[in-house]
Amino acid sequence: MTNTGIAIIGSGSATPPVSLDNHGLSKIVETSDEWIASRTGIRSRRLADPQTSLCSIATIASKQALAMAQIDPSEIDLILLATSTPDDLFGTASQIQGQLAATQAVAFDLTAACSGFVFGLVTAAQFIRTGVYKTVLLVGGDILSRWVDWSDRSTCVLFGDGAGAVVLQASESDHLLGFELRSDGTQNKCLNLAFQGQPQPLIDGVTVTQGTYQPVTMNGQEVYRFAVKKVPEVIEKALFRANLTVDQIDWLILHQANQRIMDAVAQRLNIPSEKVISNLANYGNTSAGSIPIALDEAVRSAKIQPGDVIATSGFGAGLSWGAAIFQWRF
């Protein structure tokens, strides 16, 4: 098989219509707009109501991306859904495939939490570069409101729901310029959404465990220290692989976790604030959805132009982190 380049040619995004601002949140837990905004940069977040599924918002984002790319669903070879909150524990990508009527596409979920979109981007690229598939739809999305303890102000103020999508296609020239992926499972307890069960004896000598997943738990200080140290490093390694310098970056799109983290990473890389794309104030942390939502908004507002070089990095539970350098729709 012949190695093939990659072009990213379309984007889309969708969030639930229900919005909860910090003033509203202060009626649920002891907090305030000033406390949340000063520590996180978040002012509001979108929340899925009981009728809204991950599949529904992911499908809307996907249709927008396909329309921008001028790609018919029948042309999609692969659908990758990066998520930690599927509608079905067995996977939701195939439901999106069905909703799109993407009859030629194989579909599967990929789980890497807040790093999911970057990990998905790199995974999709391998299928294209090896010539296996020509057109890939990559969706990043999460509905973390399902798994937040709304009495825990250390976590419930952070998360929102949403999905974003991009279309990748084989190209004569390669516009995924460089990447680097990392994991450290020894730090897993810093941020997780763990299964908790109780022993259920069936018959003598046979016991199983049954239960469910528990709400998100996080050591905020450790996650902050991890991100501020590791994210600049992984971006620099991706830039090295791309044979580029920091000065050649047009835009920095980080996982929208915390404005303090984004500011600190930009400062350590000497990237001016006007090159940093942030929509955290309006959406909160949408996990695997945060980077593609921010990308799509910047594209549709004409901030990002064809040929612009974008450095992106996802980081979070696992712990996992990664960076990718790419040119938009060149």
TrEMBL record:
Q: What is this protein called?
A: Beta-ketoacyl-[acyl-carrier-protein] synthase III
Q: Could you tell me the superkingdom of the organism this chain comes from?
A: Bacteria
Catalytic residues in the record: C114, H255, N285
Question: Lineage from the top down?
Answer: Bacteria, Bacillati, Cyanobacteriota, Cyanophyceae, Oscillatoriophycideae
Summarize subunit and interaction data from the UniProt record for this chain.
Homodimer.
Similarity comment text for this entry: Belongs to the thiolase-like superfamily. FabH family.
* Domain writeup: The last Arg residue of the ACP-binding site is essential for the weak association between ACP/AcpP and FabH.
**Ranges for domain Beta-ketoacyl-[acyl-carrier-protein] synthase III C-terminal:** 240-328
Q: A single Gene Ontology molecular function, please?
A: beta-ketoacyl-acyl-carrier-protein synthase III activity
Organism for this UniProt entry: Limnoraphis robusta CCNP1315
